[in-house]
Amino acid sequence: MDKKRVLFVCIHNSARSQIAEAFLKKYGGDRFEVESAGIEPGKLNPIAVEAMQEAGIDISRNRTKSAFDFYKQGKQYDYVITVCDESQSGACPVFPGKGERLHWGFPDPSSFAGTHDEKLKKTREVRGQLEAKIKDWLKGV
After folding, report:
1. Is 3.30.70.3040 the CATH classification of the domain at 4-140?
2. Are 118 and 4 spatial neighbours (Cβ–Cβ below 8 Å)?
């Protein structure tokens, strides 16, 4: 059976799409080939890396990737899932192709204010929400 191809997209590919990619690989890697990208790739969010390490997943060696580069390479996906929050939905990229498009809105960890511990707490919440969404989505595909 061929694996379905999934692309998670957000603005910077620094946290949400990286977390979603890691969880889908963990829970559905036998069924899906998974990548993530951003419209304006930034730097990997160190607090997202820390939150994922707490969950037993090391994303510290991941690099941020460009959705436009994937497009130029001619990549096609069965599912393109945007994970931008609602305030960024206008800037959230659209990836061309015939794949099914889904939008799952999540807060952007790079926008969290406060101390390191406060930002980590909020990032853990997003991590938990993404993990739950991935598990729920896998039940229906």
Report:
1. no
2. no
